[in-house]
Amino acid sequence: MFRVLLLVLLASVPAVAQSSVLAGLVYSDTHTRPTASGKDPVEGARVVVRGTAFEATTDTLGMFHFENVRAGKYTLEVSRPGWKTAVATVTVDGSPLPATVQIRLIRRDVVAGSGLVYVAYQQRKGFELKPMRTVPGAVDGGADPLALESNPPRSPRAPVSLQDNPTTGDPDALMLLDAAAPEGSKVEPLQGHPFWLCFNRSGTALYVSTSSQKGRANALEIVDATTHKVLRRLPTAGLVTDLRLSPDGTLLLASVRGASPGVHLIDTAQQLPVGFLPLGVWQPGAAAMGADGLIYVASQNTAGSLLVLSRDGQLVAQARVGLQPTDLILSPDGSRVFVVNSGSGSISVFGRGLVPERVLPVGAQPQKLALSPDGQRLFVTNRSSDSVTVIDVPSLTVWTTVEVGDEPIDVAFSGDGSRAFVTCKGDGTVYFLDGSSGQPLHVTHPQPRSSPFGIAVRP
User: Fold this and answer.
1) Nearest residue to 446 via CA among 149, 111, 69
2) Cα(457)–Cα(459) distance, rounded to whole angstroms?
3) pLDDT digits (tens, 9 = 90+) for 151-199
4) 65, 231, 264, 333: which could join 254 in a potential S-S bond, CB 3.0 to 4.6 Å?
5) CB 429 within 8 Å of CB 446
6) How many CA within 13 A on the CB side of residue 230?
């Protein structure tokens, strides 16, 4: 009787469902972080098990796992900004061994539209090119991925970020950097050795200055901003030191130094040269046109000078600045001119009529500067002190100085002014800074064979 009762009791107890561990890898084949297996882990991807409360985010190795998953068949959905959503099915059998799955993510195509950041990458000096074309190709050949990196390790002061960007083995290239989702960026190889970048007002054409490398002379290449095909190649009288649009966008000013220093004037409608303003003994660092049509040139001879030229190249005015001026910018209303004095570590500020207002100390060997769209902040790259100086324009005071990567060169603001982007030539990175405070928000992975130089944001 007892035996029968026990059997009845056992039969009345519901069976306990078996459970197990569900684990997986989310990867891509974009070679952001090449491994010997060729599968790049995707960090920061959101993994959801449909119909359950299970949800996780992949770690630095692209891994995720769930515990106490009941036996059954499940559908997993994986998503990440800048990537196409992936769906996979996996069966959990309740055995002691984990159920495993590998899910491949594919990047969305980069939309070459307004707000995209274009970065000119040029071959690192002293780096010998190898017969392989890409880093993944070298890895497939048995090379150690870490040994392929010619750039120094990322600076320890770089901000922590879950976002990655693609890398390329091409020594000269143009990166289309998606600021909202850097991992969805794209790299276009270039034939020339690029330096400075500038868009036309509509954002349909990109001007790229190239140097005399690979048997080519110094030139200005006009590139279709959507197809990235070179539309025209214009020879220049020397090495281009800066590219700048006129206020109405009808002219591109290309300052050149060398045996025949001067300023090229390019018609942006016809994409043809319409003039050249020779500077004689003056070597220009940059040139900009005011709303009145006068052309301001930061130049160096035995001393630094700010030259003011008429449209036909006649000298209208001149003012003394610091040593080795490398850049200048005019305030939107034309009331002030800011000149970067690289050899003096300062910014010269002039009011109307070239009346000196102030000399602001910045970092060592400042290079380029950018004015925020609202005219309130001025960001200055300091090449030798590895920093960016933020100047408050209304008060003409140094707001703060922030550390960035090695040898910052160029800087540009996003269209809304919320971000500033800085190219760091020494360690091969691009820093994203807060457009107001200047604090670092993100830093890109360096390219293995090249360093960033000029930068421009597509209008």
Assistant:
1) 149
2) 6
3) 443 444 555 444 467 677 778 889 999 887 776 678 888 888 899 999 9
4) 264
5) yes
6) 16
At residue 92, the 3 state secondary structure works out as: strand
Nearest to 322 by CA among 360, 354, 278, 352: 360
N- to C-terminal Cα separation, the chain: 88
Q: What is the DSSP string of 152-204?
A: PPPPTTSPP-S--------SSEEEEE-SS-GGG-EEEE-SSEEEEEEE-TTSS
Per DSSP (E only), the strands in 324-376 are 325-330, 337-341, 346-350, 356-361, 366-371
Pairing relationship of beta strands 19-28 and 99-104 according to DSSP bridges: parallel
Unique residue bearing structure tokens 């330096």: 195
Domains annotated on the chain, with CATH: 14-107 (2.60.40.1120), 117-457 (2.130.10.10)
The DSSP code for 50 is T
- Our CA angle for 123, 126, 127, nearest 5°, is 60
Enter the tokens of residue 305: 């000078």
- Ramachandran bin of 51, using left for φ above 0, alpha for ψ from -120 to 50, beta for the remaining angles: left
254 Cβ contact list (under 8 Å, min separation 6): 207, 209, 220, 236, 240, 242, 243, 263, 264, 266
Contact present, 359 and 338 (Cβ < 8 Å): no
| Lookup: tokens for 407 | 């040898």
Amino acid at 234: L
Res 70: pLDDT: 93
Count CB atoms within 10 A of the CB of residue 130: 12
Tell me, what's the pLDDT at 142? 38
Amino acid code (one letter) for 269: A
- Inter-residue contact 394 to 381 (CB < 8 Å): no
* Residue 103 phi, psi dihedral angles, 5° rounding: -125, 125
Angstrom distance (rounded) from CA 124 to CA 427: 10
Distance CA 336, CA 324 (A): 20
| Coil, strand or helix at 139 | helix
